User: Fold this.
Amino acid sequence: MHATIRRYESIDQSRTGELVKKCEESLLPTLRELPGFNGYSLVDSGNGVMTSVGFFDTAVQAEESTRVAGSWLREHKLETALPNPPKITSGTVAVHKTNELVKA
Assistant:
């Protein structure tokens, strides 16, 4: 599995709610349709910092998610809310565990 972490800084804090809502309503469904999708999280650290973490089967698939996210930002005219390009860290996941939901 491969992970891509994007750290966004200097976010317009008055637009955080808008960013979260648009991410949940339109970016996440788009990412879920990409081949190799294994998960996505958006973390609001406060003080104008947000970090996203995406999990994909391969590096190529994770790189495609970065391209899709960039296109999504432009398409939704969010460049002013996110004025700086993200700092991107990407690599092979060495350790990963989640709790599985058990259906009764």
